[in-house]
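Page 37, continued from 36.
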């Protein structure tokens, strides 16, 4: 629900105040100059143009801020007033509250160690979901049809532990696809597995392409904005070199307004305009991710003429890149707006219910003075084709998601050591309960 909460909390900062006194919007270059007065020592990093009724965000690079975080000044496009001075994080353009919530989701506010723990949970989530469905399927009466087995998996009746177990299983069956979805999409930006997934995407040419910002005919170092009558800068209009500590061409008022005009003819708002970082380059402009928007097209605009020099439509991306973008937005709750967020909230509530019932099942199954009921033998001596396929799949998955692979090996080693120790105790004549008594 974070995107919706953000809109409520920062409503005043995010909305403009169009009135009869200010019926038309100021030039974007004037809005940038107003924002620049707030931070004269920071370099311009971008301009985010919102939909009707929204403020303009002027973005600056601030070396004192964390990675991927920009300084954002919110300008009312009609009155020209500064409505807020805050920060913006990542491609999702998250404001401080949503960034804080996102940090908790990503690393539990514990830094890199918390991020690894979060990756551990995410990597196991899908495996446990699939494993749970398989176990529940096999527990249904043999010889029953598919429909009969499915109905059995959704049973919620019974008493005591039976009822808890059936409700746990029914909930898991219903949300299993959602759990696998969270694992697949969540691991794409995790610490370890995310790096491997990115490498796989690059090797398969599934990465997200970008527009070319090379300007035609530009060779060597282009003139700076202060050289208004040389080369490209001859079309630059008013000199606003004082706006930025950099001398890259194309940052003056005339250039900014030409880029805005060219971009608005080609793309939909909200959009973000990114200035060139070197001479001889165009501005890049991309449509922002937004609710119910399945495409985010991008263009490069010549700041001297306002003409588009390159265009990249989302429809031209590799299909895998398009699917990745959609799935990540779906995971973040931004693809389909509030309905998307409600479904994710219900999924989160179901996960919490499953965890609670899982611990309840464990507690109700244990014997007196024992930690848990005795484990059942897996029957590794009689592997089936399904077992071999499952094992191979886990090996591949463990390579892609090393945090899962490493912890799975540790789990198997501890389980084997526990089993061996119990057998040794029995052989030596020691008395032990079926579940092995706890110390004391």
């Amino acid at each position: 629900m974070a995107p919706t909460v953000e809109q409520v909390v920062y409503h005043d900062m995010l909305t403009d105040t169009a009135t009869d006194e200010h019926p038309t919007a100021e030039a974007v270059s004037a809005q940038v100059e107003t924002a620049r007065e707030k931070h004269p020592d920071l370099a311009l990093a971008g301009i985010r143009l919102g939909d009707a009724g929204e403020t303009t965000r002027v973005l600056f690079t601030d070396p004192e801020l964390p990675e991927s975080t920009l300084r954002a000044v919110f300008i009312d496009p009609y009155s020209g007033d500064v409505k807020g001075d805050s920060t913006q994080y990542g491609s999702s353009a998250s404001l401080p509250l949503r960034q804080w919530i996102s940090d908790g989701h990503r690393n539990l506010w514990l830094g890199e160690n918390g991020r690894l723990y979060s990756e551990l949970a995410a990597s196991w989530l899908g495996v446990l979901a699939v494993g749970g469905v398989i176990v529940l399927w096999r527990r249904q009466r043999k010889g029953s049809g598919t429909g009969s087995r499915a109905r059995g998996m959704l049973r919620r009746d019974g008493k005591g532990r039976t009822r808890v177990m059936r409700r746990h299983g029914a909930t898991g069956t219903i949300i299993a696809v959602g759990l696998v979805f969270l694992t697949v999409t969540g691991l794409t930006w995790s610490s370890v597995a995310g790096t491997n997934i990115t490498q796989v995407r690059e090797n398969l040419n599934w990465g997200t392409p970008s527009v070319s910002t090379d300007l035609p005919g530009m060779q060597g170092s282009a003139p700076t904005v202060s050289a208004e009558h040389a080369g490209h800068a001859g079309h630059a209009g008013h000199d606003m070199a004082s706006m930025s500590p950099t001398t890259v061409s194309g940052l003056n008022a005339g250039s900014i307004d030409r880029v805005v005009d060219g971009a608005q003819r080609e793309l939909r708002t909200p959009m973000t305009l990114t200035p060139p970082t070197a001479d001889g380059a165009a501005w890049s402009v991309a449509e922002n991710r937004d609710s119910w928007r399945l495409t985010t097209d991008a263009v490069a605009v010549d700041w001297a003429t306002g003409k588009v020099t390159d265009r990249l439509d989302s429809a031209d991306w590799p299909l895998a890149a398009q699917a990745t973008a959609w799935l990540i937005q779906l995971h973040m709750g931004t693809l389909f707006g509030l309905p998307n967020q409600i479904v994710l909230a219900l999924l989160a509530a179901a996960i919490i219910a499953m965890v609670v019932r899982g611990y309840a099942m464990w507690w109700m199954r244990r014997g007196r003075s024992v930690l848990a009921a005795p484990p059942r033998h897996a029957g590794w001596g009689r592997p089936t084709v399904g077992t071999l396929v499952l094992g191979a799949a886990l090996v591949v998955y463990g390579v892609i998601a090393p945090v899962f692979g490493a912890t799975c090996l540790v789990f198997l080693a501890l389980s084997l050591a526990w089993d061996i120790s119990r057998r040794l105790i029995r052989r030596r004549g020691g008395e032990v309960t079926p579940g092995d008594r706890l110390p004391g």
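The two ends are 47 Å apart (CA to CA). Flag for discussion at group meeting. Strands lie at 43-49, 56-61, 69-75, 82-89, 271-274, 283-287, 298-301, 308-312.
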